[in-house]
Design goal:
Length: 754
């Protein structure tokens, strides 16, 4: 099946036009009814919605709302090639792709007639996705300074008293001291940022095979002056615990204590801990669900002794450890903590130990690493550090880290251009959000992070992980905002659209209906967010074949949009586009063309002829023209869409790959096979490089290419590509998804013909 804008027929092609889905892109807190809108809302508040296929922004006083466009189902007349014009929201690479049949790469195809099976996820021939509009920031102007009165001028001209002079000198001295401290911190940053401070000691003990004698010999070899008998005693006391041995060896080398005295201190600490844990009430107070049960008391005892020594040396500078335990354990970027120091509840440096030199001291007694400004810590140490914090301190630091990461984590994580930035903080975002959820703090930040991480995983094609994260986003948003807040509607909408992708329609309908109900009550029927929900619900109804209700929702969105925006507005173009899709699917091609022409005309006028939203409109119009047999006009519009996307995004972009796939499908129909083959393969190579072979978009393009090969008589490579595409779609979208079903029908049809 090919995914473009056609119905299913004997050509085994499923064409899907891009529909636009509305998503709330909330950068400002939504005002509850009856309350004044706050002009300055911190970055940590607010949940952002993705534009799932074609995203369209709905301007609003309080937020900008995106209407993503998703693929429209093909009519049941064409049977199975791949999606020409599926959604242009990039749905990133799938987490795990099913075992594929033998893969045929593009390079191999050059040797064997054809059979490319690279997996590059870009959406098949979809109608392009409109970009969301950015909410425009209004600069804050300074108020003009009123002219001075004569009395004020007299005050300026008089001489200062001695007290005033002293106060002025003191203020200047304080300012100079602050400047010196800032310069010193910057100097420390430059000194420590580009070098490795400490690489943790690794004893490489295999507790399953190593004897006590071997471990004792290893310890004796690592601690200067340690006799074999003392090493054996030490081994027995530490119960062969690798973390305990590692920390103890570091302690002995750094502090050079009396070995017998150190062993006695460990024993005393163990006895005290055991006594505390035997008391159920005390254990519950210590635990709070946080104590690592797999860690022995001796490990905890050794850790506490090292921590106490560090506390003596570092004072408040040791608080960097308290913060680090709420990040993911690897590559904690210390610079972002410094950038958002306002969130830190306690000082994390002292005059003697700066923020950037603290890891050097810590690394001498605890297993950590500091390299190029990133701090890493053993995950067991994180658990022990957290355990050592008072529960109120855990909540305090958990909230601080969630707010910091939320401030740094990028918006629009569904956009491939944001993937690199998002990937660097992704694990920290998930860890901090989970910690915030566990301690019931920073609910707004946690909801935002779960939502954005879920959209990121969805765009990568990891739908299972995306579902887990968006479930947490809904739960956290409900707790943070309540059951009737528009922020909850945002994440319900996002989860509903993900469930649509997974063909879990029953829950998707519940989510979208609830989101619509919330926004109807909180914002009103004429609010852009409400239109967004109405539009997305229409898309879901269209997927289910309920064209009548889908059309009603799209028509109502269009009427309301014309009223609140104007008839020549980008959002109106979006609603026209989606109505065109529904008419296309029901075979009303002339009406579909009329709406598509109107959508294109509006966006050219409002956004300019070189805007990527115009490329979306032209691509959709071309799909309709192709169905009408207007091949020259269709090729012209597809080609113009390609040129726009290349100018905006460059040649290596999923949108460009999608355009190439659409052109290839048209060239296949017109018999220009050499050009079709070239464009199919270029689209596959681009998608593989950007999205990977396990992405549904790649699978759609791969299926289309496989259908092309079958039509040209290359049965072997054609079936290999189609079968691999089917395996990828079954893994990523599920066996019940309509795209999977169409590809499967195409494969079965081809197999019967053989």
């Amino acid at each position: 099946m090919e995914f473009a804008t056609a119905a299913i027929n004997e050509g085994d092609i499923v064409e899907t036009m891009t529909q636009e889905i509305t998503f709330d892109d909330i950068r400002e807190q939504i005002v509850e009814p009856g309350k004044e809108k706050e002009e300055n809302v911190t970055a940590v508040a607010g949940v952002i919605e993705e534009p799932a296929v074609e995203t369209v922004a709905v301007a609003e006083e309080e937020k900008s709302e995106e209407i993503p466009v998703e693929e429209a189902q093909a009519d049941p007349e064409e049977v199975a090639d791949v999606i020409e014009e599926e959604e242009k929201v990039e749905e990133g690479s799938t987490e795990e792709s099913p075992e594929e049949p033998e893969t045929v790469s593009v390079a191999e195809e050059e040797k064997v007639e054809e059979g490319s099976t690279e997996e590059s996820p870009e959406e098949p021939e979809t109608v392009a996705v409109a970009e969301e509009e950015q909410a425009e920031e209004i600069p804050v102007e300074e108020a003009p300074v009123a002219p001075e009165t004569e009395a004020e001028q007299e005050i300026e001209d008089r001489e200062l008293t001695e007290e005033e002079l002293e106060a002025e000198a003191l203020a200047e001295a304080e300012a100079e001291a602050e400047a010196e401290a800032a310069a010193k911190m910057e100097e420390q940053r430059e000194l420590f940022e580009d070098q490795e401070i400490y690489e943790p000691l690794k004893l490489s003990i295999n507790k399953l095979t190593a004897t006590e004698e071997e471990i004792a010999a290893l310890i004796a070899g690592r601690v200067a002056g340690m006799e074999p008998d003392a090493a054996m005693k030490f081994t027995v006391i530490l119960e062969n615990s690798e973390p305990a041995i590692e920390m103890a060896v570091m302690y002995l080398n750094e502090e050079a204590p009396d070995i017998n005295g150190y062993i006695s201190a460990i024993e005393e600490k163990k006895i005290a801990l055991k006594s505390r844990f035997e008391n159920d009430v005390e254990r519950e107070k210590l635990d709070k669900g946080d104590f690592p049960d797999t860690v022995s008391l001796v490990t905890l005892a050794v850790f506490l002794l090292s921590h106490e020594k560090l506390s003596e040396k570092m004072g408040k500078a040791l608080n960097i450890l308290s913060a680090s335990t709420f990040f993911s354990n690897e590559n904690i970027p210390l610079e972002i903590i410094e950038r958002h120091i306002e969130y830190i509840p306690e000082p994390i440096s002292t005059p003697e130990i700066s923020f950037f030199s603290a890891p050097d001291t810590i690394g001498k007694l605890l297993p950590t690493r500091y390299l190029n400004g990133d701090f890493s810590i053993d995950p067991i140490m994180q658990q022990l550090i957290r355990f050592n914090l008072d529960f109120r301190d855990r909540k305090k630091w958990g909230q601080a880290v969630a707010d910091i990461i939320s401030s740094e984590f990028p918006e629009k994580t569904y956009d491939t251009s944001k993937w690199d930035e998002a990937s660097k903080l992704y694990h920290h975002a998930v860890a901090s959000a989970n910690n915030a959820k566990f301690y019931n703090v920073a609910g707004e930040s946690a909801a935002r992070l779960f939502n954005l991480c879920g959209l990121y995983q969805k765009s990568r094609g990891s739908f299972g992980e995306a579902k887990t994260l968006l479930n947490s986003a809904v739960e956290t948003a409900m707790s943070a905002y309540g059951k009737k807040h528009p922020e909850l509607a945002v994440v319900l909408n996002n989860r509903g659209m993900l469930l649509r992708e997974l063909s879990e329609y029953a829950q998707a309908v519940k989510d979208l209906n609830l989101a619509l109900e919330i926004n109807m009550e909180a914002l009103g029927a004429d609010n852009p967010s409400t239109l967004s929900n109405m539009n997305n619900l229409g898309l879901l109804q269209m997927d289910n074949g309920d064209f009548a209700n889908a059309k009603l929702n799209f028509e109502k969105a269009l009427r309301t949009g014309e009223k609140i925006f104007s008839k020549r507005h980008h959002q109106v173009a979006i609603f026209c586009n989606n109505l065109a899709v529904i008419h296309f699917r029901t075979g009303e091609l002339e009406k579909a063309k009329e709406l598509a022409v109107r959508a294109s005309s509006i966006d050219k006028e409002v956004l300019g002829s070189g805007h990527p939203a115009v490329a979306v409109r032209l691509s959709n119009l071309a799909s309709i023209q192709k169905r009408l047999g207007e091949m020259d006009e269709a090729l012209e519009n597809y080609t113009e869409a390609l040129h726009i996307d290349e100018a905006v995004f460059g040649k290596s972009h999923p949108r460009v790959a999608e355009d190439l796939g659409n052109i290839a499908l048209l060239q296949k129909l017109t018999g220009d096979n050499d050009s079709a083959r070239k464009n199919f393969r270029q689209a596959l190579q681009t998608n593989e490089a950007l999205l990977g072979k396990k992405h549904p978009t790649y699978a759609i393009q791969q299926n289309n290419y496989g259908r092309f090969l079958l039509a040209k008589g290359d049965r072997k490579n054609g079936l290999v590509n189609c079968r691999q595409a089917l395996a990828t779609l079954e893994k990523s979208l599920g066996k019940n998804h309509y795209l999977t079903a169409e590809v499967k029908r195409g494969v079965e049809s081809a197999e019967k013909k053989g």
